[in-house]
Amino acid sequence: MRWLGGQESGNIEDRRGLSPVGVGGLGVGGVVLALIGYFVFGISPSDTLQAVGGAGAPPAQQAGAAGSPADPEGRFVDVITTSVDEVWSQVFKAGGQSYQRPGPTVLYDRATGTGCGLGQSAMGPFYCPRDHRIYLDLAFWQELDSRFGASGEAARAYVIAHEMGHHVQSLLGQEGQARELGGRGATSGSVRLELQADCYAGVWVAHVAQVSGGKVALDPKDIEDGLRAASAVGDDTLQRQTTGQVVPDSFTHGTSAQRMRWFHTGVSTGDPAACDTFGAAKL
Asked: Domains of the chain: which residue ranges?
C-alpha cells in the first residue's frame, strides 16, 4: 500500500504512555460487559459503553499531545485519517453538502476516557458519536494479524476507514436511523449500520488515489487484504471462534460474506448511494 508522502493534518491526540486519572461512572462490570459484547457478539463498544455508562461526565483523562505523531505507526494513522477526510470532503461537496471532520483521533494504550465512557484496548477500535472521535490502541494491529489473520497496512487502513464511516453516518443522520429501526439479529439497525460503514470504507478506496494525487493508493492485492480484514470480523466468524456456534439472532455487524460484499460494493461503485443498506431488500 502506498501512503508515505501522503498529507498529514495533525488531527491526532496521542495519549500513549499516559495513565488514566479516573474511571468516571463506568465500573469494572461495565468494562466486562463491553469486552464480552465485542468478542462474543461483535457489539460495538461505544454502544455498550453508552448503555452502561449513563449520561454523566466521561472519565477524567490527561490530555495527550496534539498534532502529527513522529513514529511510523502514528504517522500512518494520521495519513489515513487525513486521506479519508479529504475523500469525504470531496464527496460531500459533489453532493452539495458541507463535510465536518471528526474530532482528533485518539491514540492510547490500555484504557482511556471517552465521551461514551471508559474505553479499553481489548474492545478494539471504535467511534464515539458523543464526542465524534475515533479511539485506537495500536496494539490492535497485532491482534488483527495474530488473532484474525488479517495482516498488512491495507487491512489496518480498512479498519480506520470503517470507523471514519461511522462519522459520516453521524453527519448524515444514519446512526439515528439505525437506532430508530432497532431490532435484533441479521436485519437489525445495528447490522445495517455496520455494513454501510464497510461500504463507506470501500468508497474511500475507490477515490483515494485520485483525491490524494496518487500519494495514497491501494492496488488489487491491497484490496484483497481489506476484504480479508472485513471477513475476519464478521459476526459468524467471531462467534465460531469464541463459542463454537453461530447465533444469527445476536448478529450486530453482519456475516463475513456480507461485510466483504458491502466493502466491495463501495470499492466497485465509489458511490455512497450504492451503500444504502437501510433500503436494501437483501443484505
From this structure: 12-274
